Write the structure tokens for this entry.
Amino acid sequence: MDILYLLVPVSVLLALLVLGVFAWALQGGQFEDIEAEGERILDESAAKPEGEPPLA
Amino acid sequence: MPTMQNSATGDGPIISAAELAPALPPAPAQAWAVAGLHCAACADGLADLLRGQPGVTRAEVGYAAALAVVHAPEAVQRTLPEAVRRAGYGLAPATPADAAALRQREARTLLWRLFVAAFCMMQVMMLAAPTYFASGAEVPADLRRLLHWGSWVLSWPVMLFSATPFLRGAWRSLRRRQLGMDVPVALGILITFAASTWALGDATGQAEVYFDSLTMFVAFLLAGRWLELKARHGAALELSALQGDEPTEALRERADGSVEPVPADEVAVGDVLRLALGERLVCDGQLLDGATQMDEALLTGESQPVAKRAGDGLLGGSVNLGAPVRLRVTRRRADSQSQRLAQRLQQALTERPSLRLESERWAPPFLAAVLLLALGAGIGWLWVDPSRALMVACAVLIVTCPCALALAAPAARVASARALARRGIVLQRLEALETLARVNEVVLDKTGTLTRPTVLPLGAGAAPALQAAAQALASWSQHPMARALARLPQPGGAPPWRWRDVTEHAGAGVRGVDPEGRAWRLGSPAWVREGGPADGTPSADAAAALAFGPEATGAVLRYGREEEPLPAVPRTVARLRAQGLGLHLLSGDQAQRVQAFGQALGLTHVAGDCDPEAKRAAVQALQAQGRCVLMVGDGVNDGPVLAQADAAVAVGGASALAGRAADAVLLRADLSALPELIDQARRTQRVMRQNLAWAAAYNALAVPMALMGWLPPWAAGLGMALSSAWVVLNGLRLAR
């Protein structure tokens, strides 16, 4: 059970990291328009990349 | 941003605007959409905050419409959004697009708070789980402490971000020296967190920590708030869509001079519109010819009509008082926000809680009792089992649900307003729902409410061109007789003349100039005959209600007046009777005709030859008998009667001038919406009573359980959240 001494702090940090990532995504406007990415492949005029490259 | 001059308060119908005009010089008023109101008390808090800002002379905030009207100089107005942001409110210009964006931001922020709370709740429960199942292998002390510390860390996002609405709400209400709903909740949260943090210091790890309960009840409470927010936003959307629809049509002039009705949204910049007397303008425009007076009271509060000459700008939403005119559109309806603003301004103003609802008055004493009870429980338990004292006190604080008192009443009313809006009934005063539920006598007007006038041509062989010309001239007026004439089928043949310089003389008729320059009159026979040969045919005129002829020459066309009952009336009357309402018919028309009409409908209390004063006296007599009276009219000359009655409903399709005195406006031109309105009002009362009964039962059950120590804090949170969710959902039933 000694492994728990490592796992518990790690999981807490991980949970905080998840929250941080979501906050960053929200701030960056990732959730503004959920449909846009799906429709982008159908968009004829998007020949060159516009704005920020999407997250891989 | 639109600004308006406003110098009068639009108070209840009995008090005229002029009497209440404040002595201060008027400052420009601006309407703002508001975010961050989750109860009517928050609206008061925001109003106080705004009034405290330097430079603000007046501020009113309406909860259900989420609208604030602030009187302040332009420079001060610009600083307001920032000034209220720190207190947790959001302000955005009250245009439909901005308001919708604000609502979306508000909803999204709440959803994120809920997500953070729920996510942390699950993580904390995971860390707390080993201590739940303490069977067999005991958790070593230092591992237990590690788990507690982990829970502590994960509770911080909840405390800092998710619980903010409750903490802020409690702070706001305490600053106003009032006990708001949030105070016990915030106290419970803070005490739980503080006590659990303190318990972290216990070296043995045996002391209980309650981070799992804490995060759980914050999550549940936020879920309840989310439901209530969705309900409120839905209502605001419905209401703004409805009020923006009136008027729905405009008369556009085609290139050849004929008119066509067009939907208001299709009116484009540059179109030429015709505006009849008494009609409300759909969008901003420029007066093309003639002169008129416009009532801009809805926009500016100035009840004095404003004179306009050719070339002057006209504001969308103002009412034409002088004469029928032609104007060119300068801004599209969607862009002239003034109309929507004006209507919602009115709603915000009339929502001032001049009569605080009974149940809302109970909330502060109830909350005070709760705090005392919690204190008592804490002290009591110190004697019995000190380690549990704090948590029992917290459980008592959390489990009590004042929501039915403070939250469900506005939620029920707003949901009802939404349901009514969808059926074409505009509720102008939400408080009127209570009165409408109590109504037991209905006084009906005849003309315009139960009947519709039609005209019959008298005499034979009138030239079709003349008839068409008369109908074309009639289309310039909103008078019921003129509209009845315009409704007649157009005789075939050449297109009607194009009338110029049309003026309407109230009480007499319409005068227009034909393309050849001759003046014609359409209206009461005496007026048309005026100045003409003395030996005109008075006998023929006596039978006619409407005459048409060249000026100073005498009538060439006469129309007799008939009345047709509106089709839905008998059915509506039967329904109203089935609802247990006493029906009265009071009309200014001849007694004989009114009697005949009333008997045909089976009404017993019928009176004719009633002038407005007689009607008012009759209403008063009924009220003296202890009856609650609802007056239904088309409002053209019913103003004082509508004010005297306990509740007033105006039937739509009538003059827009009537709108402000009535508690509700039926947009459908017939009476069939009235039984629905009464039904909805009664349902609202029932639901509010149900909510109160539920709140009483729940508290009677839950508080003793918490006092006895049978309720762990997480159960208290769950109970509170479920109870408030239930009350809101019950209120939402009304929206169907």
